[in-house]
């Protein structure tokens, strides 16, 4: 027992003589905390002026191509996803019916022109004939009045003679001549009345000439419309872009307004739906960096162009009615247009609607 006690006493004395060591776990924990603090500060410092969102996509303009006239497609000049230039023919519609319409319109125009020319000649003749006809009627009236005066004198003379100096036959002849002269005066007077409105008759012919000019204009308008319809049988590209959603084949019957193509314009931008709480410092002109999910290697640079004056829900088909009494506050998102300034690769197509992650540096 004594030996064991001596051994324990020696061991205790040896342990007491060794210096105490600080646990290394505490040092490691402090180092980790320091690194986390530095990392958090760096992250805050680097991203304190950056607003980002993953609710963003590429956007652009697409033009609906639709024929303006009906007919059968006789030629299809483009394929899917083909790049076309402004004015390039895309589709040819059977033009035969529209060529016939144009020829009919040309014939109607020529007829109207000839009719107008005839009325114009008649008006020129009328300006000379109408005054002459009035003068002629007035001269005939004067002659008829002179004949009436002579017949009246002969009749009065026959009535004044005694029965022995004349015969009943002479009296009857004088009476008949008087009545005939009176009828001639009435006839000549009526002709004068008929030919008196010379300005009105000239105006009537001028009105007919004006009416014929209107008919010419109508015929010309129909010809212009026929030429326009004929030109519309060739559907041309209104701008540069790529053919998308082709919905027509050779031999199809197409109608006016029927969608047969979409042309996507080369200009592409980003529509980013930022939360309303991210817009406090965002202004047009702020720089943006854009990452494309489809092409991770692309590093696009751009700037904020504009902020839409309304949230996405405001312009939806069924906008929210907060006045119903069951209001629940939801953070709204507002579309922001970001224009791409650089970084695009012409060899890589950038379709509309693909996901992107923009980061806007605000100040």
Task: Walk me through this protein's architecture.
It is a single chain. With 363 residues, the chain is an alpha+beta fold. The protein has three domains: 33 residues, no CATH class; 165 residues, Elongation Factor Tu (Ef-tu), domain 3 (Beta Barrel); 128 residues, Helix Hairpins, CATH 1.10.287. Helix content is 46%, strand content 22%. It contains five helices and 13 strands. Strands 1, 2, 4, 7, 9, 10, 11, 12 and 13 form a nine-stranded antiparallel sheet that branches. It has a four-stranded antiparallel sheet with strand order 6-5-3-8, with no helix packed on it. Strand 10 and strand 11 form a beta hairpin. Helix 3 packs antiparallel against helix 4 and helix 3 packs antiparallel against helix 5. The chain starts with a helix and ends with a strand. The mean pLDDT is 84.
Key traits:
single chain; 363 residues; alpha+beta; Elongation Factor Tu (Ef-tu), domain 3; Helix Hairpins; 3 domains; nine-stranded antiparallel beta sheet; four-stranded antiparallel beta sheet; 5 helices; 22% strand
CATH A-level architecture of the largest domain: Beta Barrel
How many beta-strand segments? 13
Estimated helix fraction: 40-55%
**If you average the pLDDT, what whole number results?**
84
Question: Over the alpha carbons, how many angstroms does the gyration radius reach?
Answer: 52 Å
CATH class of the largest domain: Mainly Beta
What letter string, H or E per element, gives the SSE order? HHEEEEEHHHEEEEEEEE
* Secondary structure category: alpha+beta
Instruction: Give the percentage of residues in beta strands.
Output: 15-25%
N-to-C terminal Cα separation, in Å? 83 Å
Main sheet makeup: 9 strands, antiparallel
Give start-end ranges of low-pLDDT stretches. none
CATH topology of the largest domain: Elongation Factor Tu (Ef-tu), domain 3
The shape is rod-shaped
Number of helices: 5
Count of discrete structural domains:
3
Kindly report the name of the CATH homologous superfamily of the largest domain: Efflux pump adaptor protein, beta barrel domain
């Amino acid at each position: 027992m004594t030996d064991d006690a001596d051994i324990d006493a020696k061991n205790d004395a040896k342990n007491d003589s060794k210096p105490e060591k600080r646990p290394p776990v505490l040092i490691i924990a402090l180092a980790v905390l320091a690194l986390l603090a530095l990392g958090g500060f760096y992250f805050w410092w680097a991203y304190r002026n950056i607003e980002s969102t993953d609710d963003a996509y590429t956007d652009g303009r697409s033009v609906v191509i639709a024929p303006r006239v009906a007919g059968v497609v006789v030629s299809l000049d483009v394929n899917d996803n083909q790049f076309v230039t402004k004015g390039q023919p895309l589709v040819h519609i059977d033009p035969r019916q529209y060529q016939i319409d144009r020829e009919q319109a040309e014939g109607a125009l020529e007829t109207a022109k000839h009719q107008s020319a005839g009325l114009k000649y008649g008006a020129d003749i009328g300006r000379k004939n109408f005054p002459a006809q009035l003068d002629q009627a007035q001269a005939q009236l004067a002659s008829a009045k002179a004949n009436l005066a002579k017949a009246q004198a002969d009749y009065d003379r026959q009535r004044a003679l005694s029965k022995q100096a004349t015969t009943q036959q002479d009296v009857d002849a004088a009476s008949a001549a008087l009545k005939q002269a009176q009828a001639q005066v009435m006839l000549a007077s009526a002709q004068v009345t008929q030919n008196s409105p010379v300005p009105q008759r000239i105006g009537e012919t001028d009105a007919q000439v004006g009416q014929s000019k209107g008919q010419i204009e109508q015929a010309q308008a129909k010809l212009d419309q026929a030429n326009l319809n004929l030109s519309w049988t060739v559907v041309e590209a209104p701008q540069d872009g790529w053919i998308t959603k082709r919905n027509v084949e050779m031999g199809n019957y197409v109608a006016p307004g029927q969608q047969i193509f979409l042309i996507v314009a080369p200009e592409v931008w980003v529509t980013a739906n930022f939360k309303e709480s991210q817009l406090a410092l965002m202004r047009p002109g702020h720089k943006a960096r854009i990452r494309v999910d489809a092409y991770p290697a692309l590093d696009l640079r751009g700037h904020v162009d504009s902020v839409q004056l309304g949230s996405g829900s405001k312009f939806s088909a069924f906008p929210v009615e907060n006045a119903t009494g069951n209001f629940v506050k939801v953070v709204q998102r507002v579309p922001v247009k970001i224009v791409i300034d650089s970084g695009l690769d012409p060899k890589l197509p950038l379709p509309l609607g693909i996901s992107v992650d923009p980061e806007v540096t605000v100040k």
